[in-house]
Amino acid sequence: MTEKFKILAQYIKDLSSETPNVETYLFVKDNISKYNLNIDITSKALKDKLIEVNTSLKFSDVEANEKKSYFEIIYATIIKVNDEIKDKKDLEKIILCDVQTEIYPKLETAFLNLVHNSGHPSIKLEKKIDFVKLYNERFN
Hints:
By secondary structure, the chain is of the alpha+beta class. Helices cover 35% and strands 35% of the residues. The chain has helices spanning 22-31, 88-117, 131-139; strands at residues 5-18, 35-45, 50-61, 70-81. Strand 3 (50-61) and strand 4 (70-81) form a beta hairpin. The longest helix is centred in the C-terminal third of the chain and has 30 residues, at 88-117.
C-alpha cells in the first residue's frame, strides 16, 4: 500500500426523508430554495488500522416553519490506513479531506436521488464542496 489509505468499503448507512403530509409537501415545494445543506464528518477507530468514517448530509429548513421536510443521508466509508501514518494531523487530513474528496461524487448522487425521489426533482447542489479549503480554514 503506497498511498496513505485505501477504501475497503463504502455504503449508505442511513437514509431519511420526512414530509408528514401533502400540505407540508406543497409548502416545501415553494420554499425549498431556503433550505441549507449541512455536512458532518465523524470517525471511529476499528481494529488493525481500520477506520469507519461517517459523512452525514442534512438538508433542512433553517427558519422556524411548522411545515418542513427533512432529508438526511449518512454515508459510511471503511478505510485502512497505511502503517506509516502515525501523526494525528495526517490522520485528520485523510479523514476530513482525502476520503471526502474521493467519496463525495457518489455521496452527492445518492443524496440528490433521495431529494429528487422525494418530489423535488429540480433541486441541485450548486456549490461544490472544497474539502481541502474547509480543512485549511479549520486549522489556520
